[in-house]
Amino acid sequence: MRLSTVSISTRISCLLCSLVLIACSDSSSQRPARKPAEHIVETVMANQQTISVSQTISGTLQAIREVRIINQAQGLLTALPVYPGDKVQKGQLLVQLDSSLAHAEMQKAQATLNLAKVDYQRLKDLAPRKLASESEVAQAQTRYEIAVSDLHLKQTRFAHSQIKAPIAGIISQRLAEPGDVIPLHTHLLTLIDTSSLKAEIHLSELLLPLVKIGNQVEITIDALGDKIFKGSIKRIYPVIDKDTRRGVIEIILQPVPEGALAGQFCRVKIKTQAKARLMIPYDTIRHDKQGTYVFSLNENKAHRVNITTGIQQNNLIEVLNGLIDKQLIINKGLFGLKDKMTVKHITK
User: Fold this and answer.
1) Which of 211, 197, 200, 212 is nearest to 55 (CA)?
2) pTM above the 0.85 mark?
3) Range of the domain at 285
4) What is the mean pLDDT of the chain?
5) Integer Cα distance of 25 and 33 in angstroms
6) Is residue 5 part of a domain?
7) Do 268 and 293 lie in a common domain?
8) Among candidates 256, 250, 254, 255, which has minimal Cα distance to 268?
9) Share of residues in the chain with pLDDT > 70 (%)
């Protein structure tokens, strides 16, 4: 009888627990589901703007002409009368090599020529009287022509014992001293033309199509303070560096301002002609393996738009294709944003 009472109590307890569980289950099923957090974004508008691109690029002043003075005859250097910084005129003597041997050879060649000329003339005079054969005359003529050529050769060698300035300019290097025995083709001096200076600067491939030969530029030279000098684009090189994506343009500075020297650091400011460009803030763009893109906003959804960019001006960047004027671009809330994600657009 006692076992029966315990069994009944146990069954009653189980029944009560089941009822409690069912009640809890019904209560939780009636509780509303939690809504996912909203992704809040802000936008800016792509704007068509008339912009003139201005960029300052550093460079180094160089002489437009730099001539390396190299000897074409070997021998003892007897005179080198110029030093770095000396101004020289075109045709001025720069180098003198020992010319005694070359002079003696030239005199010998002159004497040989004189003898050959006399012999040739004598046989020519004898030929009409049959006192000299045509063969003898021909041989004498050949000896005479050889003697003429040999004299020219010896005169050239003698002339090579002196080197004169090919241009007017300033000596920038002196690489030998009198008393040195100079081998053939030795670099002895460097002569630079300082009547005009140039600077070669590297410009982005995006800006190269916007500049032309003859365009004016502004140049500042650090050593001369903040004064601005005028220059112009002299040459645009036709090759782009595949690693840097930059091309070389040559800027000419003429007339040369007082105090400007080859080797000085300079800054060149290039300004392009103003034109309409579609601009967006630089910090709106993203990059991945598929390329460069932004998120546009349409009907509370973010849409990935692949774009091609152009020049950058301060905190703005040009869009060459992919967007249109006045299109809304997401600029805040980009973290975690995905294509076709529903967002909440707020404005400030």
Assistant:
1) 211
2) no
3) 42-51+276-345
4) 88
5) 15
6) no
7) no
8) 250
9) 90
